[in-house]
Amino acid sequence: MADPILELAGLRKSYGALTVTDGVNLAVKTGAIHAIIGPNGAGKTTLINQIGGQAAPDAGTIILDGRDITGLPIHARSHLGLARSFQITNVLPGFSTLDNVAVAAQAHAGHSFRFFRSVARETALTEKAMACLETVGLADRALIRAGALSHGEKRALEIAMALATEPKLLLLDEPMAGTTHEETARLTETLEALRGRFTILLVEHDMAAVFALADTISVLVYGRVIAEGAPDAIRTDPEVRAAYLGEEEIP
Ligand SMILES: Nc1ncnc2c1ncn2[C@@H]1O[C@H](COP(=O)(O)OP(=O)(O)OP(=O)(O)O)[C@@H](O)[C@H]1O
């Protein structure tokens, strides 16, 4: 596979006496679906927060597409192609599903539409937003108020809003959280359809989804990557199974 789009080297972070990221090295290959799993409190969200810019590492570097982004603010990372799925709280419930995606596209790429006259600009944004909704299977919900979508549909909408920013790397922190069994299956299909078109770094507790989707799985325990590899290798790794005793079932 191609060069890594994301490289973490010697990343460290502590909260007081608690070391939450303990020398993490990680490379996400372009075009891959790369999952990070680990027991509760292993430091997965803290790691994603450092990549997204919501938390600052104490040491180490974060390289996105060859550029050191370690000290950059969130908006600069977003400009360089890093997208984190919007939280449901960022969805405007009174706006249509389509308009939510159009607003995300406009917010990110407003300047690239500046040469369009307003009607053409609106058409271009609407077409782009519609394409993102088609990608996540929400095209038939385009004109419905976002507030009226089901929980699973809102999660799909968040992904569409992130896709509208044309990310080089999409960070997904627990996209299946709170979804029903059917919604999880649908979201798994949605993410499967993104394979090869987008590079995804996924934190997810739903092990069936992770093992179905991931090309590579990194296992984080107490802030360290204890194992990394293809799902089949991770599934049978004795250290991984020991770390998961009493936690989620590994399929
Ligand atoms: N802002 C903070 N201040 C202090 N401690 C924190 C902070 N954020 C996280 N922690 C602690 O760091 C540890 C790792 O938390 P984190 O949320 O990154 O783990 P996680 O692997 O995402 O957990 P989960 O699977 O339960 O979501 C936990 O012990 C948590 O209590």
Automatic annotation (TrEMBL):
Higher taxonomy: Bacteria, Pseudomonadati, Pseudomonadota, Alphaproteobacteria, Rhodospirillales
Domain ABC transporter: 6-247
One GO cellular component term noted in the UniProt record for this chain: plasma membrane
Database matches in InterPro entries: AAA+_ATPase (IPR003593), ABC_AA/LPS_Transport (IPR051120), ABC_transporter-like_ATP-bd (IPR003439), ABC_transporter-like_CS (IPR017871), BCA_ABC_TP_C (IPR032823), P-loop_NTPase (IPR027417)
PANTHER family (alphabetical): ABC TRANSPORTER ATP-BINDING PROTEIN, CONSERVED COMPONENT OF ABC TRANSPORTER FOR NATURAL AMINO ACIDS-RELATED
Protein name, entry field: Amino acid/amide ABC transporter ATP-binding protein 1, HAAT family
GO molecular function: ATP binding; ATP hydrolysis activity
One Pfam family in the UniProt entry: BCA_ABC_TP_C
UniProt xrefs under CDD domains: ABC_Mj1267_LivG_branched (cd03219)
Record keywords, A-Z: ATP-binding, Nucleotide-binding, Transport
